[in-house]
Design goal:
Elements: H1 7-23, H2 26-35, H3 41-50, H4 68-81, H5 87-101, H6 104-115, E1 121-125, E2 131-135, E3 143-147, E4 153-157, E5 162-166, E6 175-179, E7 186-187, H7 194-228, E8 232-233, E9 236-237, H8 242-271, H9 273-301, H10 314-325, H11 330-340
Parallel strand pairs: 1-3
Antiparallel strand pairs: 2-6, 3-4, 4-7, 5-6, 8-9
Helix pairs in contact: 1-3, 1-4, 4-7, 4-8, 5-6, 5-7, 7-8, 7-9, 7-10, 8-9, 9-10, 9-11
């Protein structure tokens, strides 16, 4: 049995990577950090042409009908580029919310529009009726999908909500606080167990954020490796120093197992329902810690240059830290996984 990506998945990742390498430059990151919207309409149109918004949308609704492993592959590439696109919230979480928790009529009304890139969803969780804190991918959303305390999901247009956008630590991805009237919202009307449908969506979001962190951490490692192979000190390439070699060996041993962990967690979302929640929580927690360590060590490998805006490495550093806390930090995820496994 071969535990690897398929040829189609590799080609898809290469196509997406090629597009993002052209569009998401350091200069573009600086511009979007200044505006704070977290959205580039030109880039989004390119992603629509590539078919990214319909990645998980079933074929009968105009999508590609692919699975969570494919979404994880895309998220890793997007994280590696620090692309400012509403992937986790709109492409993954909102799509799965309709697939797992909406009537056939609601699916027919919304999924083709998601696949065509006509609508972009921000996703939030309400703990108190019509109020949401830190909705993900809501900075330039056309619509908002909000999970209410009972687990049912409501759909509202961005104009129907009173929104306040905040710059997060990751200036390319703002978070949004919302106030809206639940009685005026369209409900997805999950037929059975809305709490279960909500958890499936949240867990998928956690896996995607973990994959995004993996891509960002890999980029930081690659940048640091390139630097230490070129930088000279005391007449020698600093990558030849034993202490530097040890540092990079540590990063490799931390980073490489994470890829298999992310792929397995993504696979479990579609094929292993009994393991899906625990693996999503553990993967999100582990990548949060590993990503932070890789970010720190890769930045330090650049010396003082690593902290400058000129180099731009901080965009990946901040993306990793954003992912670490969004949808639950490592401590919260491990506590929840422990309860599921009967440890607490």
């Amino acid at each position: 049995m071969e535990f690897a990506l398929s040829e189609e998945q590799v080609l898809f990742a290469d196509s997406l990577r090629g597009l993002l390498s052209e569009r998401v430059t350091i200069d573009a990151l600086r511009r979007h950090a200044e505006t704070g919207s977290g959205f580039d309409e030109g880039l989004w149109n390119n992603l629509v042409e590539l078919g990214l918004p319909g990645l998980l949308v079933p074929e009968r609704f105009g999508g590609a009908g692919l699975g969570m492993v494919d979404a994880a592959v895309a998220a890793e590439v997007i994280g590696g580029a620090t692309a400012f696109a509403p992937f986790a919230g709109s492409v993954v979480m909102a799509t799965l919310a309709f697939i797992h928790g909406a009537t056939e009529a609601m699916q027919a009304a919304w999924l083709p529009r998601i696949a065509a890139g006509e609508v972009r969803f921000g996703v939030g969780i309400s703990r108190n009726g019509g109020q949401v804190q830190a909705a993900i991918d809501a900075g330039a959303a056309t619509h908002l999908l909000v999970y209410l305390p009972d687990g049912n999901a409501a759909v509202i247009t961005a104009d129907e909500a009173s929104a306040q956008m905040h710059r997060s630590i990751d200036r390319t991805r703002p978070v949004v606080d919302l106030t809206f009237d639940p009685t005026q919202a369209a409900m997805l009307n999950a037929a059975n167990a809305p709490q279960v449908a909500m958890q499936r969506v949240l867990d998928a979001g956690r896996v995607v954020l973990a994959a995004d962190t993996l891509g960002a951490a890999q980029h930081m490692f690659d940048s640091a490796l390139t630097f230490v192979k070129q930088r000279e000190q005391f007449g020698r390439i600093i990558g030849s120093f034993q202490a530097v070699k040890h540092q990079f060996a540590d990063m490799v041993t931390m980073l490489e197992p994470c890829r298999g962990m992310v792929w397995y967690a993504a696979y479990a979302q579609d094929a292993l329902p009994d393991e899906a929640r625990v693996t999503a929580l553990q993967t999100k927690a582990h990548l949060g810690d590993v990503g932070r360590e890789i970010a720190r060590m890769a930045t330090e490998a650049h010396g003082g240059m690593g902290f400058t805006d000129l180099l731009g490495l901080h965009y990946w550093f901040k993306r990793i830290m954003f992912n670490r806390q969004m949808l639950g930090g490592p401590e919260l995820c491990r506590e929840e996984a422990g309860r599921l496994q009967g440890w607490t």
